[in-house]
Amino acid sequence: MAESNDGSSPAGAPENIGTTEPAATPPASAKPAPKGAARAGRRGQPARPARPSRSARHPAVTIGSGIFTFLLFVFVGMGLVGWYGQRAFTEPGPLTAEKVVLIPRGAGVRDMAEILQREGVVENWLVFVAGQKLGRPDANLKAGEYLFKPGQSVASVIDTIASGKVVLHQVTIPEGLTSQQVVKRLMDNELLTGTPAVPQEGTLLPETYRIHRGMTRDEVLQQMAEAQRKLLATIWAKRAPDLPVKSPQELVTLASIVEKETGQADERPKVAAVFVNRLNKKMRLQSDPTIIYGIVGGRGSLGRPISRTDIATATAYNTYAIDGLPPGPICNPGRDALAAVANPLKTKDLFFVADGTGGHAFAETLADHNKNVARWRAIEQGNTPAATPGTSN
Asked: HEC string of 125-160?
């Protein structure tokens, strides 16, 4: 077909002949298929179901995972707490120097812990309480006064208190005190407790005893009495066979007189010999300390010199007025006096008097004794004598 020279379509031909319509554009609201969704009709394969998401897992799995995580945290936490507790229980404590701490009677574990923290023995009272309950559940914590060393751990502190090894003090009872005077001395000791009855005269052994704070005075007296019983039994078994004393009680009575007559240990066997010799000869003992005890009893001290009236006044104990031994001891004699009476020196002395040096001059005859008395008077040099000395002092 011939075309026109100006390129226009032949007259009467439709304008869209030979043209193609553009493809239809999908609406903007249409969404693409989700990733992984089944593609229907692809090569004739059936559609596959979509994979479930994490949020769609079974509830039991989720709960189990949570429980496991919780238990893991619990066990880790318990491990850390146990490690810290064990470390705090055994590591060195805060003390930098030895310290004595009193745990009072009736104190519970919490009370003890707070006292120890306040005194700087432990860092934290909770560690002490927990350590005792968990680490030392069988520990029997005892009241008392304890010495703690520098850097002592909580475990060691608990062991110290459970051991009952309290701090020990000393109380010394001198020879020659009456039982009433012994009790007074114990009453003056603030470490001890209780108000005891006065024991029988001569039943206590003067000695140095170990005591602890809070100990009762009755306990101390019981120790003294037991010590005296044991010692007296030993001494009585080894006594000289020719003694003029017939029983352990009489031995204690004579020893108490010897004890009051001299404070020098080396003189006791000599003084004992004088009294034993006088008893063998049926002579009165004529001991000044027996006059005093007959007047004041357990108080022990007359508070003034002995007068002639005192010497002449008869009492059950005044050996100027009675024959033989008094009815009982006039004090608590020590071991040296007891031993001296049980085995006195073999002498013929019947008299003694003070010699001005703290000791005594001894004599076999009255004439020699009177010379010793005159010498003593000269030493006194004008001091008013309490009384004319008797035959034994």
From this structure: HHHHHHHHHHHCCCCCCCCEEEEECCCCCHHHHHHH
